[in-house]
Amino acid sequence: MRIATFNVNGVNGRLPVLLRWLEETRPDVVCLQELKAPQEKFPEDAIAKAGYGTIWHGQKSWNGVAILARGGKPLETRRGLPDGLADDQSRYIEAAVNGLVIGCLYLPNGNPAPGPKFDYKLAWFARLHAYAAQLLEMGVPAVLAGDYNVMPTELDVYKPERWLTDALFRPEVRDAYAALVAQGWTDSLRQLHPGERLYTFWDYFRNAYARDAGLRIDHLLLSPSLAPALKAAEVDRHVRGWEKASDHAPTWIELAD
DNA sequence: ATGCCTAATCGCATTAGA
């Protein structure tokens, strides 16, 4: 079973790229972030024609998350983090697919830091931490996939010293990610590629992709019961080189049945 | 210290991304 995460940076502007990639790789489950489309403007029919059923949580202009399942429709289990706190940003959606809980998240960017956006990022991270702990307590097989907007370690940044004060790399944020993983989650990509420089994002600026000036910020975390099933974890980095590409590349894992 | 590039919304320049 192949599960992918892809920050599309505009699901309508990116539709040809998304469909081309779906056709090429045929993942079983796909988590999308940054739809940048209101609920009624999600391209459900075009994606259905490609063979995928979808649930999504849209928002005008910004954010937005979706889960696609090949040959079916994901059974939605949550929309927004389940702590009852008011949050007008569409950043979390969750479904049951093939006996797994799939959480699709778009963690806030948080720049500029310090400031209210950075505070919101840390608060959102704390809410995710609390809910992730609940998932582990329930003992369900779960994948938390998405754009975490965190480079976990220096190995995940092309030039760490340049990013020390950035909201994606500040110590508080790296600590929050480490604390989340320490609950018992497995960082799939790092698990299978220890010590390797792997990026999932390349800025549009300064010819970053050609220079391989990238960041690893899209992650797939596995609950303990799923960790032994991890067979592969890769980045479809060639997709970043396509015409009209997103600044993120699709990232995926393969789990044994 | 700032803009670079790109999308969305707008209807031309601004906001946000990371």
Automatic annotation (TrEMBL):
<dbReference type="Pfam" id="PF03372">
    <property type="entry name" value="Exo_endo_phos"/>
</dbReference>
<keyword id="KW-0460">Magnesium</keyword>
<dbReference type="InterPro" id="IPR004808">
    <property type="entry name" value="AP_endonuc_1"/>
</dbReference>
<dbReference type="InterPro" id="IPR036691">
    <property type="entry name" value="Endo/exonu/phosph_ase_sf"/>
</dbReference>
<protein>
    <submittedName>
        <fullName>Exodeoxyribonuclease-3</fullName>
        <ecNumber>3.1.11.2</ecNumber>
    </submittedName>
</protein>
<feature type="domain" description="Endonuclease/exonuclease/phosphatase">
    <location>
        <begin position="4"/>
        <end position="248"/>
    </location>
</feature>
<dbReference type="InterPro" id="IPR037493">
    <property type="entry name" value="ExoIII-like"/>
</dbReference>
<dbReference type="GO" id="GO:0008311">
    <property type="term" value="F:double-stranded DNA 3'-5' DNA exonuclease activity"/>
</dbReference>
<dbReference type="InterPro" id="IPR020847">
    <property type="entry name" value="AP_endonuclease_F1_BS"/>
</dbReference>
<comment type="similarity">
    <text>Belongs to the DNA repair enzymes AP/ExoA family.</text>
</comment>
<dbReference type="InterPro" id="IPR005135">
    <property type="entry name" value="Endo/exonuclease/phosphatase"/>
</dbReference>
<keyword id="KW-0378">Hydrolase</keyword>
<keyword id="KW-0479">Metal-binding</keyword>
